[in-house]
Backbone:
């Protein structure tokens, strides 16, 4: 097994209301889960292959709770990656070279029934974790916009965090609101102003790297 590790930032949007029941070992509030995920790798490696500055993204759909499986996924890999980097990113994103259930990638991998052919493409992505803002665009496939939750009366920005000391994705995530809509491709996702998490990631073959 090749050791990998990276530090980065993510924006995840799903169909749950703010909070996302999955973060609390509860069932999804819509009965199903549709989600988009975008990751900027600021620095990292897979073996001797550097991954600094590269991006990955994905679409997910589960007809019921994630742990019951029958999921569908489409993975996007940054077109700037060379052949070795693409192979490395796909191994990480599909839960390979990872201890069992050690990361969100490995957990999701065991729940997927349909995995579409990965797409090598430009991924336009920017995210400000502390500001709870982000945008991701893959032309011809999906558009995602994230922003802070706002007070419904005053419009003021509201800040909340989820802390998971033993989590398999992050330790602390800032919670916001996001919308995602597919514009083509094999999967149809339409999420409007639902749960979004903005998080700094530090992951490796063995799971979340904790200070």
Residues:
């Amino acid at each position: 097994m090749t050791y990998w590790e990276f530090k980065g930032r993510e924006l995840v949007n799903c169909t749950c209301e703010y909070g996302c029941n999955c973060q609390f070992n509860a069932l999804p509030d819509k009965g199903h889960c549709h989600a988009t995920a975008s990751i900027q790798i600021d620095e990292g490696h897979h073996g001797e292959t550097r991954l600094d500055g590269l991006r990955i993204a994905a679409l997910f759909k589960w007809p019921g709770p994630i742990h019951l499986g029958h999921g569908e996924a489409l993975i996007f890999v940054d077109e700037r990656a060379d052949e070795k980097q693409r192979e490395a990113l796909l191994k990480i994103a599909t839960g390979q070279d990872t201890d069992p259930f050690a990361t969100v990638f490995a957990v999701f991998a065991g729940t997927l029934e349909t995995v579409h052919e990965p797409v090598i493409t430009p991924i336009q992505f920017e995210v400000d974790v502390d500001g709870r803002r982000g945008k991701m665009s893959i032309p011809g496939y999906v558009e995602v916009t994230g922003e802070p939750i706002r007070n419904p009366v005053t419009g003021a920005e509201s800040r909340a965090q989820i802390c998971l000391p033993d989590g398999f994705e992050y330790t602390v995530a800032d919670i916001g609101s996001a919308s995602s809509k597919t514009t083509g491709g094999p999967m149809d996702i339409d999420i409007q102003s639902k749960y979004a998490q903005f998080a700094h990631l530090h992951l490796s073959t063995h799971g979340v790297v904790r200070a």
Remarks:
- The mean pLDDT is 97.
